[in-house]
Amino acid sequence: MQTTQRIDNDQDAMALALDWAAKGMFITAPNPRIGCVIVRDGLVIGAGHTQPAGQAHAEIQALRDAAARGNDVRGATAYVTLEPCSHHGRTPPCSDALVAAGLGRVVAAMVDPNPLVAGRGLAQLAAAGIAVASGLMAQQAQELNIGFFSRMQRGLPWVRLKTAASLDGTTALDNGASQWITGPDARADGHAWRARASAILTGIGTVKADDPQLTVRGVDILKQPRRVIVDSRLDIDLEARILQGEPCWLVAAAPDQAKLAALTAAGHEVILLPNAAGKVDLPALMRELGRREVNELHVEAGSKLNASLVREGCVDELLVYLAPSLIGPGQGMFALPALTQLDQKQQLIFHAVSQVGPDLRILARFTPSEPV
Q1: For residue 138, with 0-12 CB atoms within 10 Å meaning exposed, 13-18 middle and 19 or more buried, which class applies?
Q2: 260-281 per-residue burial string, b: 16 or more CB within 10 A, e: under 16
Q3: pLDDT digits (tens, 9 = 90+) for 21-55
């Protein structure tokens, strides 16, 4: 049960709804992270956020919370961070529930980009005599669900490529040693970014060099993100740590048939996506992951795969941790080819910069900066 909270205006109410939405950061995929607060006479009488797929959405949670507190919602205002759904998916339409509850007004931060909704939810509410509005704190709402918007509008996940380096751009020594360039705070922060993703992608080079698990640790989650390995010929060792635990998706071009059979027998799935050069078709992989309802894809790979993803336009955002140290020559972040003139550079914009422990965290987006 929630304590009664006073709200002075629409902006404060929607900000609170966004706070509630953030509570579902690690649990709602492939659904968006939605929050809802119900306000009457300046008091919050119900609040909630979307539960895991197949369970109650934010509006239903808020209505249940109001009922549990003994509050009458008739004539009250509901603030929702995304337009209430109006279609039967894994759960019944939230718009039906709001109409049945007798809400007087519904304010949505954004219209739902899902073509199955796309304004129909607000239209249904308006037709039932409920006052509706949308657009309040829309940018914040979209940022919270940037992967869902990307998948709905482009058919692609939002791809976030994470790397950690010294101040002079070295990610590892020439002998491969890289533990640890950044501090424990940055590493813990990196796990939180892993946790919000639907899938984590790496390449066979990283698997061979580091034998990583690529699991989320130190964050309370319901399930691990799907692990995706780009491995053109299925060179992976069947004893690799990444193959332990939940099944992986391995993406190949010209696989060894015996290895394919062994991986399949172990419960993993091999996805064949060859390009003309006999490598994995990375843009096709992004489309396939979108089809598989991956909202946010978190990449932790080596410089070669990082460069290939960037070069083929598959990356939306860089998540870079910079340590206040100088290492000198070693492995870099991106094995990109040398340019002959500066106007060939790929331009990014700094979206957010903050300090995490002694290290710097940079979120940089490829231009155009708002592709969704």
Answers
A1: middle
A2: beebeeeebebbebbeeeebbb
A3: 999 999 999 999 999 999 999 999 999 999 998 88
188, with CB counted inside 10 A (0-12, 13-18, 19+), is middle
Contact 231, 204 (CB under 8 A): yes
Residue indicated by tokens 């009457």: 40
Closest CA to 196 of 158, 153, 238: 158
- In Å, the largest CA–CA distance within the chain is 70
Backbone φ and ψ for 147, nearest 5 degrees, come out as -70, -40
pTM comes to 0.92
Tokens at residue 269, please?
A: 């799935």
CA distance 68 to 30: 28
**Listed residue (115, 90, 97, 155) closest to 295, CA to CA:** 155
Return the C-alpha torsion angle 229, 230, 231, 237, nearest 10. Answer: -20
Dihedrals φ, ψ of 94, to 5°? -70, -30
Distance, CA of 209 to CA of 266 (rounded, Å) = 23
Strand partners of residue 77: 39, 105
- Annotated catalytic sites, by residue? 59
User: Is a pLDDT exceeding 50 seen at residue 303?
Assistant: yes
State the pLDDT at residue 86: 72
Left if phi > 0, otherwise alpha if psi is -120 to 50, otherwise beta: which for 129? left
